[in-house]
Amino acid sequence: MYKPTILVTIPNHDDTTRYLFAWSKPVIKLAHQEKDKITILKDKQANLKEFTNTVEKIQPSFIFFNGHGNETTITGHNNQPLVDADTNIEVLKNRIVYALSCQSAKKLGPKSIKQGTKTYMGYTEDFIFVYDTNKKKHPEKDQTAGCFLSASNQTAISLLEEKTTGQAYADSQNSFQKTIRSLLTSESKTEQSSMMRFLIWDMKHQVCLGNQDAKI
Amino acid sequence: MTNTEKNLIELVVSRLQTMPENLAISIGSEGTFKKKDLIKHVKKSDSVGKKIVKVELDYLRSLKDIAQSVLNNV
Amino acid sequence: MDIILYDKLCYNKFMTDSERFLKIYANLPVNLRNEIIVVLPDVGPMTWNIAYLEISNDTKLSKKILEKLSNFKII
User: Is residue A178 exposed (0-12), middle (13-18) or buried (19+ Cβ within 10 Å)?
Assistant: First the structure.
């Protein structure tokens, strides 16, 4: 039976990537449960050399990037570039990509689609999330950050559940919407309104480019 | 800086002052910021400050029909 | 003409700032009404609720509030 090959990059060198690292665990757990072939480049392994060699070796159908970035680049450990629009964009060809990485869907995403990437999901602006500094040492217990990261990661979860890229994107958008709706009621706490503007921002700037019917 | 821009900064700073002390914000590779830092950046009107003002203004303008747009997507 | 388009046109062209504010306020979730919406010199920050009190009573202050909200395109 066909099982997709998945590559996940999860650097862990600052507060932000530490949170992404913690909240990517449910995605990785699901991939293991589904017995998908999953390769994880974590911490220092999320560097250009390892990334390039791994892609060449395992030919992943789905790449889930966690990390920083900008309009043309996705980065890994210590913000080293892993994919850049002008140097190695062909590494994404024929793959489905989800980049939890600031702004990469603005230029890198559309260019990669033109160069043969099946689907590119990501953000056209900075991905911003709120977190509780009292829970920094245990980011997996921080439900404030969890509102953002679980909505975002719903994309990857839906893909692992064999949904199409279009459905995965819709599921993630619905997850953002659900959280926003719950914060709009009279029973939400005043401090939770701090989250609202950034949830709306992230939801608005999340995109799904290319083939909407692809599956991993 | 125009009067409108100054007024906007004043508004955003007032709104940020109501943010709980224990919360911080991650803005990608710009870094992570607590309330005090955000207010400093907004007053300086640097790249981080401008970003926060943009997010805030976008949000305020979306309040016109926030209930409707959320209900439409149920 | 489509009723939604007609409503939008009315909203944009024929409503006063005060009417627009009151319509938005009525549709604003309850927990957001305590958020600061405007800062006036000599008065300081004001929330949606306080702005509503001024505007619904057509006070002198309400003109200044509406001007700022309109400049920022919040209403």
Answer: middle
